[in-house]
Each structure stands twice: as structure tokens, then as C-alpha cells.
Amino acid sequence: MLLLAVLLGVDAKTKPDGSQKKGLDNRQALDAPVAKIMVCPFVGATSVSLKAVPMSDVMSFLPFVGVFAIMYFLLIRPQQQRQKQLRNELKSLRRGDRIVTAGGVIGVVQKSREDTNEVEVEIAPNVRVMVLRDTITTVLTSTAKPANDIEKAKK
């Protein structure tokens, strides 16, 4: 408290009304009425009164809110959408889909069951490995046909 009082230029032996206290030692000086000093939690500014936060302090906090909003819409939200899309693709993995694992291995799905977390992937001719769904980072191609594809009639 004494350090805070010194930083703010308040003498520890000065009463709130401005008169001097007499005969105080250091221990009593630490108990001096410095309770009127309030630290604003929003911007770290100090105020000498116990009144509400001034409007200028609230206005100086708004750029932080703006930066967070920009970061949310440019970074956080698109990443959440990509994760949601990948989760949907992993749920609908089918035989013949080309995938990339977290280790960078490219392969073709040979067997996939929805009740297990394992997928059998062919990484070379006649070389099959079991990988966890969580290690699949990208689904390159899917054999599922889009809903609006219409096969042309043979002539």
C-alpha cells in the first residue's frame, strides 16, 4: 500500500483532508487511509475516488473488444467451421475415399465401420494399415455422388 501511495504521489503521513499526521512511525503510516485509491480492472488505470468508472475508461476498453471481434470472425469462426466439415466427412467415410493422415500418409479407404474408430487404409498395392479416424486430417476425394448429379441416358 505504501508503494502504491508513493507511486501516486500521496504522502503516507497525510490525512485525506490534507492535514499532516504527527508522531506516526512506519507501521502506523502503512495503515494510513489509502482506501480511497481504486484500481480500475478494465484498463489498469488508477482513480482516487470510489465513484463509478468514468465513461472515458470504458471507451478506452472498446478497442480491445473490437480486436477480439475481428479475431473471432477472421480466425476462430472459420476454424470451427472447418472442424465441423471434417467431422461430417469423417462420419461419412466410404470405401474408395482418398485420405491424408496426420503423418502425411496418403491412402485409399478399404474398410470403414461407423461403430469403430478404426479405418483400414491401403497406402500401396496390397499394403493395408489400420488408422484411427482422429488421425485423418483431410478427405481428398469422395466416391459419393452429389445429389444433383444426373446420369446421362445411353443413346
UniProtKB/TrEMBL annotation:
Primary site of residence: membrane
Protein's cellular compartments: Cell membrane
A single cellular component GO annotation: plasma membrane
TM stretches of this protein: 58-76
Membrane topology, record value: Single-pass membrane protein
One GO BP annotation of this record: protein transport
UniProt keyword Membrane present: yes
Entries under InterPro entries matching the protein: Preprotein_translocase_YajC (IPR003849)
Residues annotated as signal peptide: none
Superkingdom of the organism of origin: Bacteria
Family the UniProt entry places it in: Belongs to the YajC family.
Function noted in UniProt: The SecYEG-SecDF-YajC-YidC holo-translocon (HTL) protein secretase/insertase is a supercomplex required for protein secretion, insertion of proteins into membranes, and assembly of membrane protein complexes. While the SecYEG complex is essential for assembly of a number of proteins and complexes, the SecDF-YajC-YidC subcomplex facilitates these functions.
Subunit structure: Part of the SecDF-YidC-YajC translocase complex. The SecDF-YidC-YajC translocase forms a supercomplex with SecYEG, called the holo-translocon (HTL).
NCBIfam families: yajC
PANTHER family per record: SEC TRANSLOCON ACCESSORY COMPLEX SUBUNIT YAJC
Name of this protein: Sec translocon accessory complex subunit YajC
Organism: Acetobacter cibinongensis
